[in-house]
Amino acid sequence: MRNFISELEQRKKAGLYRVRRQVSGPQQPALTADGKELLSFCSNDYLGLANHSASIEALRVALSDTGLGGAASHLICGHHEAHQQLEERLAAFTGRSSALLFSTGYMANLGVISALAGRGDTIFSDQLNHASIIDGCILSRATVRRYPHGDVASLEAMLAETDGHKLVVTDGVFSMDGDVAPLRALAKVCREHDALLVVDDAHGFGVLGPQGRGSVAELGLSEEEVPVLVGTLGKAAGTSGAFVAGPEVLMDYLLQKARTYIYTTAMPPALALATCNNLDLIGQGGERRKHLQSLTDRFRQEAAALGYSLMPSGTPIQPIMVGDNQETLALSRALEAQGLLVTAIRPPTVPEGEARLRVTFSASHSHQDLDSLLQGLSDCCHLLGHRDVADDKARLNRGMVETCLYG
Predict the structure, then answer these.
(1) From 40, 114, 140, 175, the catalytic residue
(2) Domain match, 278 and 290 both
(3) Residue 149 annotated among the catalytic residues of the structure
(4) Neighbours of 141 (CB within 10 A)
(5) Residue 320 and residue 299: Cα distance in Å, rounded?
């Protein structure tokens, strides 16, 4: 016990100690956390569907037809017609032949990667991939090689010198930086070097591309070019769970081999039907995405004018780079004192020296909400006297990091 207590104290001194907030009521920009009324800018509810009235009504109606629990795994007696309907809808929505539901995005990546690669195989993973991808690679027992973030030339050189079964895995939109992977170039080198490409589009699904079909659809990449597409349903889709979509033979293979699919209880069938409803809302959500982009564009212009260091992201994920852990915490706490909830992101979620505030926008935010955030940032500028030094350190570390646990 003494060792555990000592480690916790060390984390507190280093500014790395984490605490939970207790939220009351629905997830929305104006929420109650630990009994305080706050304006939140840290949710992944990009389209504002987590508390959408039509979503809630769809779930209420579905509960009376399907009951609550999934009761068993899909391969026992838990695969309900509602799950089948959602899988078919997701396959059609993403332009894939077939889809398979998972309970969470983390479980999807663990199951998919460890099923598609094993001992004797090689996985190539972007250095800034999400923790679930990193853990899936470890669980697979394959040889894992990390390529520098977004560096297709380095990846191609690695692929060229490697024999045997090869798997390349990347986030579509990187969850802490907000940038988009070079998917077209990745698809090309994978085809040329006979590697299977897996894209986790957790933060692109619902937000990017025609009708919100994701970062892969935004580039018009086919199932042949991106054979394995992973997406989550707890972010822009506003519900819960995850899916993988691709050729029928691969989905059948995952059904046989993905342990996180085989050995877990199916999601509540009513939730699957509510998600079908939300797919309609996503497809019809052009105005929501337009509004979301207007918030993002205005924030980038005005926050930069205040002197804050932003990353090159055009998505609703807008990191404010700080660098120092304690300085990042101080800025987050100062904003909270003004009624603004923007969480501090610190190692090991991001590399050492790259602590930041992760601002995320929702279509439920108004421009008046953005006014409040910008005013708060203006009032707190004095807390970042070493901002330029921190940014320089962050840029240096970005070129050197090799093993960060990102998630």
Answers:
(1) 175
(2) no
(3) no
(4) 13
(5) 11
pTM for the structure as a whole: 0.92
Closest CA to 297 of 313, 286, 309, 285: 313
- Catalytic residue flag (residue 365): no
DSSP-derived secondary structure for 165-178: -EEEEEESB-TTT-
The last residue of a domain, from among 283, 302, 328: 283
**How is residue 299 written in tokens?**
């924030």
Domain span including residue 146: 53-283
Mean pLDDT over residues 16-44, rounded? Answer: 94
Percent of the chain at pLDDT exceeding 70: 94
pLDDT tens per residue across span 201-228: 999 999 999 999 999 999 999 999 999 9
**Catalytic residue check, 290:** no
Cα Rg of the chain, angstroms: 21
Cis peptide upstream of residue 347 (ω within 30 degrees of 0): no
Q: 336 and 211 share a domain?
A: no
* 52, 74, 130, 235: the active-site residue: 235
Catalytic residue among 52, 130, 203, 365: 203
Q: Are residue 156 and residue 95 in the same domain, yes or no? A: yes
